[in-house]
Amino acid sequence: MSKLLEKLAGGDRRSIGRAREVTEEVLAIPALLPEILAGIWGSDIIIRSRAAHVLRHVATASPSLIASYKEEILRKMPIIDQWEVREQFCILLPLLPLTSQDIDAVLPILQQFLNDKSSIVRTCAMQAMVDLTEVEPELINLVTPIIVQLTDEGSAAMRARGRKLLKVLEKRRQKPE
Q1: Tally of domains in the chain
Q2: If you write DSSP's letter for every residue of 132-147 in order, what string do you get?
Q3: What is the rounded distance in angstroms from the CA atom of residue 172 to the CA atom of residue 177?
Q4: 8 Å CB contact between 121 and 81
Q5: How far apart are CA 23 and CA 74, in angstroms?
């Protein structure tokens, strides 16, 4: 295991450990990103969770740093059956330089995530779907009924997020082309 991933190891699954420190290292030395991805693809659930957290924060600070890893992220991240990774995947999606083809590929994944056992993943999937309407405005007609249904029938968190997301969708619908 690399020294970088060792910093993400151990402790309680609910903590981020030294993820902030590792995020700063990766932002300073982007060549470390493959190690973070290796941590996500690895078998240690704590490292995987924290590495996904790091990747999301790197992407938020500098989306261009993860752009060249888009294909790998889109191919591997959604098949990991760990809620922390799926949550981070949903948050990462709008930060990636997605094509129409990419969006067509991730929409079914997000729709599957709407049935995830984790309400956090379900709520993040809702958010990701709405975020994608910014990139691909034609999705509004597809996404709106899904968000309406989840706002009516979902968990308390989904209903609360759904109300906010419906307002966003309405504004986007009214936005002149």
Answers
A1: 2
A2: HHHH-GGGHHHHHHHH
A3: 10
A4: no
A5: 21
Please tell me the distance from the alpha carbon of residue 13 to that of residue 133, in angstroms, as a whole number.
33
pLDDT tens digits along 87-136? 999 999 999 999 999 999 999 999 999 999 999 999 999 999 999 999 99
Cα 68 to the chain's mean position, in Å? Answer: 17
Residue-range definition of the domain harbouring residue 159:
98-177
- Tokens standing for 85? 């990774």
Q: Is the CB of residue 54 less than 8 Å from the CB of residue 8?
A: yes
Boundary residue ending a domain (65, 96, 127): 96
Q: C-alpha distances in angstroms, 42 versus 2, 35, 93, 112?
A: 12, 10, 21, 23
Predicted structure pTM score: 0.93
Residue type, 152: D
pLDDT of residue 177 exceeding 70, the answer is no
CA distance 3 to 18: 12
Average pLDDT over the chain, rounded to an integer: 95
Taking alpha carbons only, the member of 143, 141, 104 closest to residue 125 is 143
- For residues 74 and 119, membership in a common domain is answered with no
Q: How far apart are CA 13 and CA 11, in angstroms?
A: 7
Residue where one domain finishes, among candidates 96, 112, 137: 96
Write down the residue that tokens 């009516």 correspond to.
152
Predicted confidence (pLDDT) at residue 175 exceeds the cutoff of 80: no
pLDDT at residue 57 tops 90:
yes
For 176, the 3-state DSSP assignment is: coil
